[in-house]
Amino acid sequence: MNLPADRLRGSLLSLLLVSATPAFAQDGWKAADFKLGNGMEVVVIPDHRAPIVTHMVWYKAGSADEPPGKSGIAHFFEHLMFKATANHPAGEFDSAVAAIGGSDNAFTSYDYTCFHETVPPQALEQMMGFEADRMRNLVLTDETVATERDVIMEERRARVDNDPEALLDEEVDATLWQNQPYRIPVIGWMQEIAALNRNDAKAFYDRYYAPNNAVLVVAGDVTPETVKALAEKTFGKIPRGQDLPPRIRPVEPEQNARRTVTLSDPRVSVPSFSTQWVVPSYHTAKPREAEALNLLAEILGGGTRSRLYQELIVNKGIASSVGAQFQGRMLDDTNFLVYATPNGDTKLPELEAAVAAEIARISRDGVTDEELEAAKNRFVRSMIFARDKQESMATIYGTTLTTGGTLQDVEEWPDRIRKVSAEEVKAVAARYLRQNRSVTGYLLPEQQAGN
Amino acid sequence: MNLPADRLRGSLLSLLLVSATPAFAQDGWKAADFKLGNGMEVVVIPDHRAPIVTHMVWYKAGSADEPPGKSGIAHFFEHLMFKATANHPAGEFDSAVAAIGGSDNAFTSYDYTCFHETVPPQALEQMMGFEADRMRNLVLTDETVATERDVIMEERRARVDNDPEALLDEEVDATLWQNQPYRIPVIGWMQEIAALNRNDAKAFYDRYYAPNNAVLVVAGDVTPETVKALAEKTFGKIPRGQDLPPRIRPVEPEQNARRTVTLSDPRVSVPSFSTQWVVPSYHTAKPREAEALNLLAEILGGGTRSRLYQELIVNKGIASSVGAQFQGRMLDDTNFLVYATPNGDTKLPELEAAVAAEIARISRDGVTDEELEAAKNRFVRSMIFARDKQESMATIYGTTLTTGGTLQDVEEWPDRIRKVSAEEVKAVAARYLRQNRSVTGYLLPEQQAGN
């Protein structure tokens, strides 16, 4: 039914790589936006290539908005949204989508929770009706909550606790983030999931599930006028919820030490490592810093033309996989990641030193104008793929608007990327990718010597 | 004036080592306890050896009770308690103590904040009057708060940010604790201290500074009857505050990976390391587990007779300092720590391996009955020193009662220690001191190679 929270790191990454890709304004992909009387924001992206429409309701509430000790409640609540409402029994919404040949899903991340359907345009009003209904009319019983809690605990067991890589990811996150709530896994920690109850769910629902805390994104074969009329008829009927305070969360203290996390497990067959740094996000960065980090990730490790790929896989043959990622669309400071898996008999320390050497080289000598230009062009190419898919286009708007960004940020983003200089890329590498503020996770095949 | 929060790790350690030492019941040190009508708990420990009395007011509020993003407010508030009240200008309380030749101080830790005076018995009522006054009548102005905030920021700069060892301690704590609030430094993180304001102070005061959230401990040349009469006249007049919910805080998830934190700094002259593990405290442990951890710390690294000292300093000559510590009196799970500094040309990895070998040996082969008996006897001897000092005796009661313990826990503690078996000491070593759940901090003299 729902994208499990623990897979969201993966799916989030791909979303964000996609979000390194807009530029709709120039050629007719211009979005319209307006607000309903109850404060609900609406974005419409007309796309008349095919008779389908993607309907997404985004809530500005994710795992980083959870109260202390209640980890997992955002994702838990996403599951509960598929239960009965005062007007519809559980399963009726899903059945209706299936009956018209549509698809639906939901996902939870650190800063947002999203519910979405892809259907023919004539079913849009029905989808809005269902979503508007469950925004406020969910029937939360102790029994429903207890049953779903068991489901989620089993989900956690299967996808995290039985997976050394997922376990290590969790511990690395909690070691990278020492104050920001991103240190807490989206799916939640087992002992806290186990204690979640109806009161926690009700409190989360009452606080965050309201039209003035939601963004409706509709992409597809519709006009803004139609969407507006339908939205007023459905979502527009819901009373405005309480005014929430600004989303100001604890932020990181300065990091002065290198940190490592090592997981040795007999289930691991090939060793690997990844190194992360705290860096600004699009929302927290100074102008063009986040864009420069996007280009740095692309040049350093964004695919087969990147430095790490060319040097470590093609030239030296010491890595079987390598890459760099920047998760830019986050409300608070985010992470920059490099990772590598050795090839053949190469030992992890040798591979790690080779990766460090590439990072040191880019921090010291910068990037060439040619590779910067090529990286910008690769972004533009990937944009073509992204906007070809209605759902990813809508997702770019949703993630941006729920992480402190604006429509203008989406639309001006390609221009801002084009303006980044080679000097700016070098500057963010030198400033942020320093060993004495890094966190490295090692995944090793077997128990090391020692007690 | 106040014990700075960042020194509390040190002072707390010594307090807790002292708390490995009671047994008053057998020989006339029996404490009396009762409650005032407003819910304030009172403990009296008569000690008629000299005409002095130690008066301590303990609040069940420490840094681990702070709201998210408000780190440092507990310690900040401790400072503010020395400012003007509605009835006394700032400094009057201190001057009164000084005028009668007494001493006063205060300290903040994770689970409690304590204000105390040592004075002649005839000044006890006056002390109670002052403490009762500032429990509720503090005058908090924007100006007072702003001035004291500057003082605390300077304190943090001087004692933490300019001290590599203190910086490393902070990052290790935040790496050891990934969910419990003990990960947050008592003094607070700079960016959060800088944002604390009068509203934060007022909210903390109104919530926690009330008779029903305080424990009065009086040790010295007084009778329980006198203390009761005086307490009723002073503290007894304060209305009961709001009922606080149980102090249930987020707890740690299971740890599956070894973590390290490395700080390299030119100001460091000699390298050192320490390794920590999350272990149960007296409040969270199963019966006799915490006592066994106390004895394990004593046998492994509690002074010159310990295994680490004998093996690494005396026999091998590879360490210049070495030790083990268990901070048992905490409300939530706590830490067990070993540390070592190399001697001469010994390299850190060699020393670390030698320490690990001693831990592995005790986990595998256990301890002998002889060394267990000797460790228990050393505890009894150190008790004699502890109870000889009125303030440390009172402190044992205060820390116990503000970390979920009872008077009975204090009084039965020596018997419980005596009942620990060698098998139980081995069991806690084997269960908790495992490398794959350890966190090691390295303090290195200079920048390592690398970017």
Task: Please outline what is shown here.
With 451 residues, chain A is an alpha+beta fold. The first copy, chain A, has helices at residues 8-18, 73-80, 92-99, 124-136, 142-161, 164-176, 190-193, 198-208, 224-233, 289-301, 307-315, 348-365, 369-388, 390-401, 407-419, 422-432; strands at 32-35, 41-46, 53-59, 103-108, 113-119, 214-220, 258-264, 272-279, 319-326, 334-342, 439-444.
Write structural notes for this entry.
The structure is a homodimer of 451-residue chains. In chain A, strand 1 (32-35) and strand 2 (41-46) form a beta hairpin. Chain A folds into 2 domains: 31-237, Metalloenzyme, LuxS/M16 peptidase-like (Cytochrome Bc1 Complex, Chain A, domain 1, 2-Layer Sandwich); 259-444, 2-Layer Sandwich (Cytochrome Bc1 Complex, Chain A, domain 1), CATH 3.30.830. In chain A, helix 2 (73-80) crosses helix 8 and helix 12 crosses helix 16. The two termini of chain A are 43 Å apart. Chain A is built from 16 helices and 11 strands. Residues 1-27 of chain A have low confidence and may be disordered. Chain A has helices spanning 8-18, 73-80, 92-99, 124-136, 142-161, 164-176, 190-193, 198-208, 224-233, 289-301, 307-315, 348-365, 369-388, 390-401, 407-419, 422-432; strands spanning 32-35, 41-46, 53-59, 103-108, 113-119, 214-220, 258-264, 272-279, 319-326, 334-342, 439-444. The first copy, chain A, has a 6-stranded mixed beta sheet, with helices on both faces. Chain A has 451 residues and is an alpha+beta fold. At the A-B interface, helix 6, helix 7, strand 7 and helix 12 of A face helix 6, helix 7, strand 7 and helix 12 of B. Strand 7 (258-264) of chain A pairs antiparallel with strand 7 of chain B.
